[in-house]
Specification:
Blueprint (H helix, E strand, L loop, with lengths): L6 H14 L4 H17 L1 H10 L10 H11 L5 H9 L4 H11 L2 E5 L10 H10 L4 E4 L14 H18 L3 E9 L10 H6 L2 E5 L8 H13 L5 E2 L20 H10 L3 E5 L9 H10 L2 E5 L11 H10 L13 H14 L2
Helix pairs in contact: 1-2, 1-4, 1-5, 6-13, 10-11, 11-12
């Protein structure tokens, strides 16, 4: 076990880097005030309260600060500090803008074949106008009837239309794909034969979102272990606003993200304003686990393709490296990556 770090020094360093990045004053003040509080309490008292789980009873110490202090006392460089050091003190908005410029496509886009509001052609032309070289067309799978999910027959028909559009729209490329529902047992809601013919398979949970933690963990790991799945979309299923507002699903993020990293699958940063999924705490864990990331719009209409900067800002704030973002790659590299899952059985 590593010797404890100086938690006060770590908090002060975080405050310094937040100021350098032009972050809001209230956030800077929270870390600087916490450092002063810890200095007054003394090392032994802070360690005692941390061990007893009572540090949050101290005024001004919330969940993020408690976790940061605990990491310092365990001898670990706090995740919050490590992220700020990695960004070099640049403003998150600036880093997010750089990340957006690096994106070459979008891995999660819908059309009016399922629950989108525009034709495939309209979505493709809008994406080209946004500067994309490609997107993955990921309409829903059959079990999501409320979203007009595609039967096997309709998906076959869509594949033919995508092939025709790619001839018309070149050099823009539509990658054939699907947002396949992950069933409660972790299996995928479409035939293996059809999934294997698609360029990119995005999977997501849309039912039984309140499944107990162990079952949800098993469900997600089982899906990730399927060689036909490439991207885990909106991982917690949370909704921040609207009539479908709901809390995030519960699962062991350490286990799920370790599985994604070892299997070379991507975790999605969903840019829809009512989702913004995963929460930053989990996104930082995914980065720490070494997961690949897909920053997607989950657009259901042309104008929603412009939501990507929201996801880019979140990714930048959590230290997502550009070279770990799959849709910062060329379409050819994305296809090679997805094919590798099929051929290696991972």
């Amino acid at each position: 076990m590593s010797p404890p770090r100086d938690a006060v020094a770590d908090l002060r360093r975080i405050a310094f880097l937040l100021e350098a990045a032009s972050e809001p004053t209230f956030r800077v003040r929270a870390f600087r005030n916490a450092a002063a509080t810890l200095a007054r309490l003394g090392t032994e008292e802070v360690a005692r309260r941390t061990a007893a789980g009572s540090l949050r009873s101290v005024p001004g110490i919330g969940e993020v600060l408690e976790r940061t202090i605990a990491e310092s006392l365990r001898g670990e460089e706090p995740v919050y500090l490590r992220r700020l050091e990695a960004t070099g003190g640049l403003p998150v908005a600036e880093l997010g803008a750089e990340l957006r410029l690096a994106l070459r496509g979008d891995c999660h886009v819908h059309s009016d074949w399922s629950d989108g509001g525009a034709s495939i052609r309209d979505m493709a032309e809008a994406a080209a106008g946004e500067g994309h070289a490609y997107f993955a067309l990921t309409d829903h799978s059959p079990s999501l009837k409320v979203a007009n999910g595609l039967s096997a027959e309709r998906l076959e028909q869509q594949l033919a239309e995508v092939a025709a559009l790619n001839r018309d729209l070149a050099p823009f490329r539509i990658l054939s794909g699907i947002e396949v529902d992950i069933r409660p047992d972790g299996s995928l809601d479409q035939s293996d034969e059809l999934l294997a013919r698609l360029d990119l398979v995005v999977g997501a949970v849309h039912s039984e979102l309140r499944m107990e933690e162990r079952g949800m963990t098993r469900r997600l790991v089982t899906a990730l272990a399927n060689p036909l799945l490439d991207v885990l979309a909106h991982p917690t299923g949370r909704m921040l606003a609207g009539p479908r507002r709901r809390p995030p699903s519960e699962f062991d993020a350490g286990i799920v993200f370790a599985a994604a990293a070892s299997l070379d699958k991507a975790i999605e940063v969903n840019s829809r304003p009512e989702r913004l999924d995963p929460p930053k705490r989990l996104l930082r864990l995914a980065v720490e686990a070494g997961c690949r990331i897909a920053i997607d719009s989950d657009a259901h209409a042309p104008g929603q393709l412009a939501w990507l900067p929201r996801g880019c800002d979140r990714a930048a704030a959590c230290g997502v490296p550009v070279d770990g973002v799959v849709n910062a790659w060329s379409a050819e590299r994305v296809l090679e990556w997805a094919r590798a899952h099929r051929t290696t059985g991972a």
